[in-house]
Amino acid sequence: MANKITFIGAGNMASAIIGGLIDSGVAPSTITATAPNNSELAAIKQRLAINTDTDNNAAVADADVVVLAVKPQIMRNVCEALRDKVQRQQPLVISIAAGLDADTIDQWLGGNNAMVRCMPNTPSLVGYGASGLYANAKVSDAQRDVATQLMEAVGIVEWVEEEALLDAVTAVSGSAPAYFFLMFEAMEEAAVKLGLPAATARRLAIQTALGAANMAQQSDKDPATLKQNVMSPGGTTERAIQHMEEAQLRTTIADAMQACADRAQAMAKELSGK
């Protein structure tokens, strides 16, 4: 891991990554986080014992890695204010902001920067994240390794070689926790109609999803085979799956993911002004 890492922004995702890095052995003294005022930094400083600063330029002055963890709507102002320091220091820049492409952020930082764009997801907050990463041509192999280590602190990492594929990553993992939450919600409602208490239904649905995910992760079989293994001819599972197929669940999921990817593309244009 690089010597010094600065997080511009100290919100939930930044805090989760910092906590994961420390748990993996990175010294808190090598990490700095910034926010507009000290009251926003007090909790993370107390909990993780990292360095904090309200001055972004001071915080990046000797950083090897700069993680941009601010809202997309204020990214331009933040980057343009950092331009001179970043141009002088030439750190690896990692953006975890949704919707903003690497070239746009690079331009706001003065250009010619080693840029990694990351699409994390909210399970990163509990150490079970899935992040898609893209690197521009300025990023070295060693810097790619640093970015991998940084995001593996909160889950798994998959690299894509074309930035446009991050829209697909958004559809399959970035936004997808909400798909599963919707499934839990629908299963709980249906189970209540079948007579179960809501709390019981919720616990059973969530635990079953956790178990199924672990089985899929640990098995060398594909999901179609695992599904088939649960189904007995003429049995209850077969009847449920048959109903889902007849209701065109696959098409619904595919259409929803396409809509998600389309919206990601549109947001990128809106935010960058292109």
TrEMBL record:
Residues 163-267 form the Pyrroline-5-carboxylate reductase dimerisation domain. It is found in: Cytoplasm. Its main location: cytoplasm. It comes from the Bacteria. GO terms for cellular component: cytoplasm. Its EC number is 1.5.1.2. Residues 4-99 form the Pyrroline-5-carboxylate reductase catalytic N-terminal domain. GO terms for biological process: L-proline biosynthetic process. It is an enzyme of class 1 (oxidoreductase). Pathway: Amino-acid biosynthesis; L-proline biosynthesis; L-proline from L-glutamate 5-semialdehyde: step 1/1. NADP(+) binds at I8, G9, A10, G11, N12, M13, A69, V70, K71, P72. GO terms for molecular function: pyrroline-5-carboxylate reductase activity. Catalyzes the reduction of 1-pyrroline-5-carboxylate (PCA) to L-proline. Belongs to the pyrroline-5-carboxylate reductase family. NCBIfam families: proC. This is Pyrroline-5-carboxylate reductase. It comes from Vreelandella boliviensis LC1. The gene is proC.
